[in-house]
Amino acid sequence: MSIDGARPQRKLTRRELLGSAAGAGLLALAARARSARAAARPPNLVIILSDNHRWDAMACAGHPFVRTPQMDRLAREGLLFENAFCTTPLCSPARASFLTGLYAWRHGVRTNAKSQSSWSEAHTTFFELLEREAGYANGFFGKWHMPGSGQPALRGVERFVTFTIEDGQGRYYDCPLVVDGRDEPSRKPYLSEELTDRALDFAAERRSGPFCLYLSHKAVHHPWKPAPEDVGIYADAPVELPRGANSWTGYTNGEIFGGFDRPIESAMRVYLETVTSLDREIGRLLAGLDARGLLEGALVVYASDNGFLFGEHRHVELRWPFEEVIRIPWLLRAPRLVAEPGRRVPQLALNIDLAPTLLELAGVSPPASMQGMSLAPWLRGSQAPGRRAFLVENSKEFPYSAPTYRGVRTRRHLYVEFEGRHRPTLHDVAADPRQERDLMGTPEGERALAELRPMLAALLRGERLDD
Question: How many C-alpha atoms does 99 have within 13 Å on its Cβ side?
Answer without folding.
Answer: 33
